[in-house]
Amino acid sequence: MPTLDAVALGKRIATTRKAKRMRQVDLARTSYLSIAMIRSIERGARNPSDTALEAIAAALGVDPTRLLSNFTGTETRVHAALPQISAALATYDVPLDPPRRGLDELHAAVDEAVNWRLGAQYGQIARHAPALLDDTLASFHTSTDQRAAARLLVSAARSVDAVAYKYGARDLSARLIDLMRWAAQHAEDPLVDTSVAYVRTETFFTARAHRAGALALEVAADAAPPPTDQDSQAALGTLHMRAAVIAGRDGNAEQAQTHIEAAHRLSERTEEGTYQGTAFGPESVRIHELSVAVSLGPNGVGKAFKVARKWAPSKDIPAERRSGFWIELARAQMWGGRMEDAFESLKVARGIAPQHTREHPWAREIAETLLRVKRADEESLHHFAGWLGAV
Q1: pLDDT at 83
Q2: What is the number of other CB atoms lying within 10 angstroms of the CB of residue 43?
C-alpha cells in the first residue's frame, strides 16, 4: 500500500516534470531509469532509492532536497567530492591536460554552477565541481585570452567554495579563496577584484577576525571603480553590505550603520539583480540591514523586527539569500522570546532552501534552544531538530 510520503514525493516529481514540460518518457530517458519505474514513483507506489532520486533530480535540473526535504544523500555526495576538489587545487599553477570542453561550453557550465550556488543546490555543484575546476584551470593555462579565462576561473572557484564553506571544510574554502585571489590578478578587472574581496570575508568570519575583515573591506571599497553604472554601483554596494555585517559582529554599531546607509544610497539607483555573482539591489540591502541588527546581538532585536515588519524578500531574490533572511529573523525572534514565531521562520527557510538551512549553524542553535525551553509544538520540533542534526 502506498505511503503518504511516497505519494507526496511522487506528486512533487510529477509537478516539477510538468513545469519543465517533460513527458514521463523524457524523464525516464534523461535519468536513465525505466519508464515503468518513473510511472510507479510518480503514482507513489514505489519509493526511489537515493541513487534513483538523485538521477531524477539531475534530469529535472533541481537539487534532490527540492523533491524530498529530508534527503541526506547530498551530504554524502559533497563529502565524497571534497578530496577530488582538493586534488584539483593542488596543481592549480601546473599546466597538465588540455580542457575537455570548449570555451562556450565551459562558460555555460560555469553559469549553471553560479545558478546552483544562488539556489543553494550544493549537491549539483559537488557533482560537477572537480571537473569544472580541472577544465577552468586548463582553459586558463591554454587560452589565448588569459584575462577572460581568469574571470571564468574565479567564478567557478566561487561556486565550488560555496560547497566547501557551507559544509565546514574551512581549510579547503580558504585555499579556494586563495585561488580566486591569484586568478583575479590575471583578470585585470576591478569588478572581479571587488567580488573576490566580498568572498574573502568568509575567512575573517571563520577566524572571528572581524576588525581585520572590516578593514580589508574598506581597503577594497577605496580601490573599487567609481560607481558610474549599474555594475560598478553594485560592486561597491556589495562591499558596503558585507562591511556593515562584519562591523556589526565586531560590535561597532556606528560603523555598521555608516556602511548600510552607503549601500542603501547605491541601491536606490541600482536594479535588483545579480552582479559578478552577488545579488544586489534595494531588497538585498534590506536583508543585510536585518543581518546587521542580528549581528549586534540581542540589543539589535528591536531593529530586526522593525526591518521585517510586514515585509519579506520576494521570489526575485536568490533562494540562498532568502533562506538566510528567515534564519536570521528566527534568531532575533528567539532572542525576543517569540519561540513559536522562530520555529515558523525556520520552517519557511527550509521550504526555500533545505540544504542551506540544514547546514546553517544558527538553524541548529535555534532548534536546540527551542527544544530546551519547549515553547513550540514538541513533536514537530523534535522531528525538525532531528533533520537538522541538532539532536
Answers
A1: 95
A2: 14
Is residue 87 domain-shared with residue 136, that is, in the same domain? Answer: yes
Residue 59 vs residue 145, higher pLDDT: 145
CA distance 238 to 263: 7
Number of domains the chain is built from: 4
Do 81 and 168 belong to one domain?
yes
Pairing relationship of beta strands 278-280 and 273-275 according to DSSP bridges: antiparallel
Per residue in 193-205, pLDDT (tens digit) is 999 999 999 999 9
Output DSSP code: residue 297: G
- Other C-beta atoms within 10 Å of 335: how many? 18
Same domain, 208 and 155: no
DSSP letter assigned to residue 296:
T
CATH of the domain at 42: 1.10.260.40
Residue that is last in its domain, among 188, 211, 232: 188
CA distance 318 to 340: 26
Long-range CB contacts for residues 137-143, cutoff 8 Å, separation at least 24:
137/88, 137/91, 137/92, 138/95, 138/96, 138/97, 138/98, 138/99, 138/100, 139/99, 139/103, 139/106, 140/183, 140/186, 141/95, 142/95, 142/98, 142/99, 143/103
274 and 172, same structural domain? Answer: no
Q: Clarify whether residues 87 and 196 are in a common domain.
A: no
User: Do both 264 and 324 map to the same domain?
Assistant: no
Residue 99 DSSP one-character state: P
User: Last residue of a domain, which of 161, 188, 215?
Assistant: 188
101 by DSSP, 3-state: which? coil
| Structural domain for 43, as ranges | 1-62
Query: 274 has which bridge partners?
Result: 279
pTM score of the predicted model:
0.85
DSSP string, 324-388: HHHHHHHHHHHHTT-HHHHHHHHHHHHHH-HHHHHT-HHHHHHHHHHHHHT-S-HHHHHHHHHHH
Element (H, E) at 280: strand 278-280
Q: Quickly list DSSP for 55-82.
A: HHHHHHTS-HHHH-TT--HHHHHHHHHH
* Cα–Cα distance, 144 to 132 (Å, whole number): 19
105: left (phi over 0), alpha (psi -120 to 50) or beta: alpha
